[in-house]
Amino acid sequence: MLLRLSTTLLAFALLAGCATAPPHSDPFTAAPPAPVAKAAPAAVPANDNLNAVAWSQTAIEHDLVFVQTYRDAQSRLLTALKDRHWDALPKDDRVTPSKGLQPAVVLDIDETVLDNSPYQARLIKHGGEFNEADWANWCKEELARALPGVVQFTQFAAKHGIAVIYISNRAKDLDQVTVANLRKVGLPVSGPEAFLGLGTFVKGCEQIGSEKGCRRQLVSRKYRVLMQFGDQIGDFVTVVANNAEGRRRAMAPYMSWIGARWFVLPNPTYGAWEPALFNNDWTAPLEKRRQEKINALRDQ
Predict the structure, then answer these.
(1) Most buried of the four, 20, 99, 278, 293, by CB within 10 Å?
(2) Helix residue ranges, H only, the chain
(3) 30 — phi, psi (to 5°)?
């Protein structure tokens, strides 16, 4: 009887041990564990400007394009200076004959002379779109760096008696902070007429939006312009219709000036080229504007 009981107890103990043993303890005979379902990855929010700003800030190719452009312009500058008939203003902006006038070069500021990519980076990191208040605050920080090559070029021009004039669509109330920023990075600023911001009054000329034609006309009264620099075609000529055809038409008479009188610099982060893709309608929802840009892409 005792033997039977002991045998029975032993059997129960063995069964109990099998029931409580950790699963798959034998790696050679145990079945593999059931797969654990993984959570679907969170959608990555799209930002059309991310690659553009990353390229502007980190790609050496960006810097080399600027160095190449300003270096090439500098190599041509003294030849243009010696040619008394040389003028880089479009005919509609030349209101005074250039003969005998002091020579000058005209430059846009933002993304031509000063690098504002940190402001664009803030928009990407913290969300939101361009707004005047945040932009003004960035300008007032006076932290924008000079773009590669521009300090050397403008100092070379000034050294040879060529006035350096900046025409910018920064608001007039940003004049002082902008001039201070220019000087901080080593760019020559000869006086109050060297910076012509948005809102500059030009007698006898009606300002159309943010077009720079009136200010170029103001420059033409005192200077023979040897070269112009910008990242938008509106920095060189008035654009009547901001669409693909209108932009081509504005540039057509001056294509031979590119790389000689006019030097165009890359700016993939913003510009009039963008609203031209969605009929200049900034009131349209973001997704609609984005879709219009996608629609404008060529896949052949």
Answers:
(1) 278
(2) 2-20, 50-58, 60-82, 117-126, 132-141, 150-159, 175-184, 213-220, 244-251, 286-295
(3) -75, 150
Domain contains 9:
no
Alpha carbons 250 and 40: distance in angstroms, whole number: 50
Alpha-carbon distance values, 50 to 47, 162, 256 (Å): 6, 38, 34
CA distance 109 to 150: 11
Name the nearest CA neighbour of 237 among 256, 150, 228, 245. 228
Do 91 and 170 lie in one domain? The reply is yes
pLDDT tens column, 190-244: 877 899 999 899 999 988 889 999 999 999 999 999 999 999 999 999 999 999 9
Could you tell me which of 116, 123, 113, 108 has the C-alpha nearest to residue 138?
116
Closest CA to 166 of 189, 143, 183, 144: 189
Is residue 217 located within the same domain as residue 194? yes
Structure tokens belonging to residue 117: 């990519």
Domain span including residue 284: 270-300
In sequence order, what are the residues at sequence separation of 6 or more whose Cβ sits closer than 8 angstroms to the Cβ of residue 246?
Answer: 239, 240
Whether 98 and 239 share a structural domain:
yes
Phi then psi dihedrals of residue 203, to 5 deg: -60, 135
pLDDT in tens, 161-195: 999 999 999 998 999 999 999 999 999 998 778 99
Q: Is 228 exposed, middle or buried (0-12, 13-18, 19+ CB in 10 A)?
A: buried
> Is there a contact between 50 and 124 (Cβ–Cβ < 8 Å)?
yes
Residue type (1 letter), 80: A
